[in-house]
From TrEMBL:
Protein name: tRNA threonylcarbamoyladenosine biosynthesis protein TsaE
Entries under Gene3D superfamilies matching the protein: P-loop containing nucleotide triphosphate hydrolases
GO biological-process terms attached to the record: tRNA threonylcarbamoyladenosine modification
Compartment(s) of residence: Cytoplasm
Organism: Lactobacillus hamsteri DSM 5661 = JCM 6256
Family: Belongs to the TsaE family.
Amino acid sequence: MKLEINSAEDMQKLGASLAKAAEPHDLLLLTGDLGAGKTTMTQGLGRALGIRRPVKSPTFTIVREYREAKMPLFHMDFYRLEHDDLSSIDLNGYLAEPGLVVIEWPQLIMKELPDEYLQLTIKRVDDSWNSTKRVVEFNPSGKRNEKWVNDTITAFNN
């Protein structure tokens, strides 16, 4: 399933739609080039969960925790993870918590992840750096995540 996104506001709306359909222990993987809109989407997701402080990219901190939400949000970015070394991050601990785990650049640690997740791939429609047009491809793994996609698309279109 693919969805066309035409603005940063639409990307945040998609994030909010994902949040409305999310359940504790869901795992969302975000792939795409730098500047594709992964953090923009997560900002919409965070706002919909009730996070009042700014949702920022965890590029340099690796993990940002937002426990004050309706459901905890654990936003991770493995772009700068050195040598695929997860020893400083209790990934299994985060996955065991009744929250939502969002991982940017998951391709660096795929072998460490559970078999069931929702992966979104975000691609620019054109090569223009300042263009906000994107295509988001949904790749669910597992029945729960197929339902998450369907519920998200329904929420986004309403």
